[in-house]
Automatic annotation (TrEMBL):
Protein name: Putative cytochrome P450
Source taxon at top rank: Eukaryota
Membrane topology category: Single-pass membrane protein
Gene Ontology molecular functions: heme binding; iron ion binding; monooxygenase activity; oxidoreductase activity, acting on paired donors, with incorporation or reduction of molecular oxygen
PROSITE patterns, per database record: CYTOCHROME_P450 (PS00086)
Signal peptide stretch: none
Length: 530
């Protein structure tokens, strides 16, 4: 009987091995080939991939050639804003070869690059849950984002979006204006002391570090109220996690097996952050049960949603709070502060726009040094038209989210194009924002006046302006971010004048977001008032 059973076991083993081989072949070969065939039959072209790395070797070769053949950095005397060819030379090269829509591969991941305004409009208007976050981005980011809003797809994402988005509407943001003003005023006082201590009355300052600290303080106060100093410690831990993720292999989905292995440093940081968050949660719950004053902050908002909303299962209430605390920190960790930094760099090159902003503050508020009395009036902030134009132009030239990715989770039709399930759509905001066909021959120049009549009249295709993303997954915190930008920039420009430091080296780099490789060094001095 044992002799007859042997072939049965071998048959079971053979079936199991065959099934595994078929799944691997489908994942590594047939599925990528199917996607590319569907797209190519519709006239979509692109560089020819090679197995198993796709176009990654060619991307690396183009990048290496660019670095070897060009001077990577620019000083303040030879600064220009056409940085895309050096940061993403393969995107620039392939767009010239294949047009505004093309396909390419990174390992098993198949990407459809889109810079065509008409197709972009179709993507923006597609409101189903079939467009989500690519899995190659989601899996590595799980230690940081968990199952929070930024990482999830489908119904789980839709539920969280519905619950969290109202907390960032204008009515709620109004309640955070005092926090923004208080933190910025404290920073201004520190700058005043540094200027007084200097012999020349001018300080050479790495402005992006200063504004990153300010942004951390603002979001910590907004999240954790009176416990903001403890929140700053959490912010630092999350910033360390983000630093680990600042690799091109993550953004492009390179075939990098290290992302499938546990990253001890990241998981240890995750444990530290969650331990600190749990302490804040426990302290808040004890305080509430004892009848103490309830904080009106984002932490309390998350706790209230978790405890009262039936869409969140009881077993997920704690993780909902922890995951979305980390998501809020991650989303606001550097993006707003970097926009402030890039804006001040641009203004240091164009002092006439600094003067125009100060003249506007005097016109709206009456007195330059009494600005803080007007900031709690949202109608006053809306009157800062020149400042708004400058911010919009800064986000056009230096968008934080350079690459915006969407996963096609089911076969979809976008305009005349059938896009198969498994495709990853990539949109490069920097390419859209500096397209001369859309913005004119001065697309690479700083000209805030192009926004004088609003975004809809700034260019031929306003849907191609995407500083906060697009579609259903557009940033829910954009009102918070714009309010912070206006308050911070108006306050510091009413007090200080900025010029470019001779030590500034212009070298934008991409580490999940657009960052200055060597920081942004500016000369800061008090505004001369008559």
């Amino acid at each position: 009987m044992e002799v007859n059973e042997l072939p049965i076991w071998w048959s079971v083993l053979l079936i199991g091995v065959s099934s595994l081989v078929i799944k691997l072949l489908n994942k590594l070969w047939f599925e990528p080939r199917r996607i590319r065939t569907v797209l190519s039959k519709q006239g979509i072209r692109g560089p020819r991939p090679t197995f198993p790395f796709g176009n990654v070797p060619e991307m690396q070769k183009i990048q290496s050639t660019m670095i070897n053949n060009t001077h990577e950095e620019m000083d303040g005397q030879h600064l220009n804003h056409k940085w895309l060819p050096s940061v993403f030379p393969y995107i620039h090269k392939w767009a010239k070869e294949y047009g505004p829509i093309y396909m390419y591969s990174t390992g098993i991941n198949q990407h459809l690059y889109v810079s065509d305004p008409k197709l972009l409009m179709e993507i923006k208007q597609h409101n189903s849950l079939d467009l989500g976050k690519p899995t190659y981005l989601g899996k590595p980011l799980r230690p940081l984002l968990g199952d929070g809003l930024l990482r999830t797809n489908g119904k789980q994402w839709a539920v969280q979006r519905k619950l969290l988005a109202p907390e960032f509407f204008l009515g709620k943001v109004k309640g955070m204006v005092g926090v923004m003003e208080e933190s910025t005023t404290a920073m201004i006082k520190r700058w005043d002391c540094r200027i007084l201590e200097s012999k020349s009355g001018i300080v050479d300052m790495e402005i992006d570090d200063e504004l990153k600290t300010l942004s951390a303080d603002i979001i910590s106060r907004a999240c954790f109220g009176s416990s903001y100093s403890f929140g700053n410690q959490i912010f630092e831990k999350i910033a360390d996690m983000v630093e680990v993720y600042g690799k091109p292999s993550l953004q492009f989905g390179f075939l990098n097996f290290s992302w499938f292995l546990p990253n001890k440093k990241v998981w240890n940081l995750r444990k530290e952050v969650d331990s600190m968050l749990l302490k804040l949660v426990t302290d808040r719950q004890v305080e509430r049960q004892s009848g103490g004053a309830t904080e009106n902050d984002l932490l309390q908002m998350l706790l209230d949603i978790a405890s009262t909303n039936t869409d969140i299962p009881a077993r997920r209430r704690e993780t909902f709070v922890l995951d979305n605390c980390r998501n809020i920190y991650f989303a606001s960790s550097a993006t707003t502060s970097l926009t402030e930094s890039w804006t001040l760099m641009l203004l240091s090159l164009h002092p006439e726009w600094q003067d125009r902003i100060r003249a506007e503050i005097i016109e709206v508020c009456g007195v330059l040094n009494k600005l803080h009395h007007s900031l709690h009036d949202m109608d006053m902030l809306r009157k800062f038209k020149v400042l708004t134009m400058v911010i919009q132009e800064s986000m056009r030239l230096y968008p934080s989210g350079v690459l915006i990715a969407r996963a096609i989770l089911a076969n979809v039709k976008l305009g005349d194009l059938d896009v198969p399930k498994g495709t990853n759509i990539h949109v490069c905001s920097a390419a859209l924002h500096c397209d001369p066909e859309n913005w004119g021959p001065d697309a690479d120049e700083f000209k805030p006046e192009r926004f004088a009549n609003g975004i809809s009249n700034a260019c031929k295709h306003p849907q191609a302006y995407v500083p906060f993303g697009f579609g259903t997954r557009v940033c829910i915190g954009q009102t918070f971010a714009m309010t912070q930008l206006k308050i911070v920039l108006s306050l510091i420009l009413s007090k200080f004048s900025f010029s470019l430091s001779p030590n500034y080296r212009h070298s934008p780099v991409h580490k999940m977001i657009l960052m200055p490789k060597h920081g942004i060094r500016l000369l800061v001095e008090p505004v001369q008032t008559s």
